[in-house]
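User: My advisor, Dr. K., asked me to get a structural model of this assembly before our group meeting. I'm new to this, so sorry if the format is off. These are the inputs:
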Amino acid sequence: MGYVDVTGIRHTLPDGRVLLDDVNFRVGDGVRAALVGENGAGKTTLLRLIAGDLTAEAGSVARVGGLGVMRQFIGSVRDDTTVQRFLVDLSPPAVREAWEAVEATELALMETDEEPAQMAYAAALAHWGDAGGYDAEVTWDTVAVAALGVPYERCKYRELSTLSGGEQKRLALEALLRGPDEVLLLDEPDNYLDVPGKRWLEERLLETRKTVLFVSHDRELLARVADRVVTVEGGTAWVHGGDFAGYHDARTARHDRLAELRRRWDEEHQRLIDLVRTLQQQAANSPDMASRYSAMQTRLAKFEAAGPPPDRPPEQKVAMRLRGGRTGVRAVMAEQLELTGLMQPFDAEIWYGDRVGVLGANGAGKSHFLRLLAGQDVAHTGECRLGARVVPGFFAQTHAHAAWQDRTPVDLLWHGEPGRPGVDRGRAMAALRRYGLAEQGDQPFRTLSGGQQARFQILLLELSGATLLLLDEPTDNLDVLSAEALEEALAAFDGTVLAVTHDRWFARSFERFLVFGADGRVYESAEPVFEETRVQRAR
Amino acid sequence: MPLAALATVNDQSVRSAVIRLADEFPDLGPRSIVLVVRTCREELRGSPDGALPELVERLARQRLRVSLP
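Assistant: The format is fine. Below is the predicted structure of the whole assembly, which you can bring to the meeting.
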């Protein structure tokens, strides 16, 4: 039995802004609740408050059943953390403490063989057994075999940075799902997982009897797994008691209700103000009206002190205007194209207006193919040509812009680049506003969230006048609303689109699919193919 | 992992420690080595079974070393 009860949480940012206020919800026993909201709305902060990493300014969090937490950074660990340390950190506090004691006494024993050091080590080992440490080691062995295919003893000193993002995620998920904690907080558990990995995650979350609160932007995962949706928006949170299928309607209805309540409050407020003014004039002429004037003043003061109902949360305004333009009928032609050492030669013809999803497992060469079309230097044989008036615009994965890290969006827009003229500050800010980035205009690129970086890249595509969009995992960091805005913009785009994606929901909006197979073949499919596993190469 | 039972004649943690320590400390009589090892075994009785032989031997070795002139 496990649950989380959040009551009246308030959290203020260091700059004084209130990020969350009056947050109340409960995730009951066995519930799989999704936590959704715009990039930067406070989802991760809320998870950290629940996990106890942060202390709320007001309110309380009740946790029952032991809490297991998978943090957002898992998947991108690049320090010297070992598999052993990682698994210890995911364990219940009693096991962690016992392990720390064994470690400390072992180190002491290396320094001295004195009797107290030996007795302390023996006591630490006894405590390790009492705390369930030996049972935990048995579980870790199962976890290591399931996630990495090797026993715990063979991988415990391996550095986590040598594992792929997907392996890191899988290791953490196996440990938490098989561990003793009854409540799991999972911050973007699906990031770095390819489609078979995401399907595995869905099955495991559907099977588990644990209570799960997870953050995800993957609409397919949300639709399959969530039986509640907790939304962080407008500085607070609310709960949709159904699944994701009915979420949009519920959200719209809630917004309409809030707007109506606010409109009624404003009307009543104005009526009371008018009454006070009228009575003030009457009281000036007639002393008999003075008491009524005073009473009305008191009533207005009480009404204002109670305050208005919460306002309708501002709609995220992301208006992408990808225009494009007419090109030759053949937009892309590939003849016996072979990406050296990656794939077998293949032919492809992509026509003006096509929407082509490029699918396949990680490491299959999909991103290389897009980079080649974008005009970058990619080793290949065979031929690859773009049609008349085809201007490629490339959206790279967000971490691929080392030169932008210390520059601001306004600066990048001002200077322009070949094929994209610079714009003055006024036009730059207007464009950033349309992408919901006005407040980030003067922040260094590296301080923007993944979703903000992704939106900025789409803005650059808009300004570049591209007629062939080459998108490499464009929805990976976008929140649900931004991903939908991108889909709408692509639907209205006059040109050709090729997108590499593992987002099944997004992929379904495409008409043709180029699949990079596990056997090294590239083939076309009319339906999305997500079953391709990692390419096996003897390299 | 089960916790160690009280020392008996067949206790592996005692027997293996006695044999090895007798080789290491030939100047000490076997009776004193057995006594030290059994005392250590008794004092470490709450330790995990698997770790006991090493813990007992190590502690006994330290005590025997200190007892040498």
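One thing worth pointing out at the meeting: Chain B has one domain: 12-67.

User: Perfect, thanks a lot.
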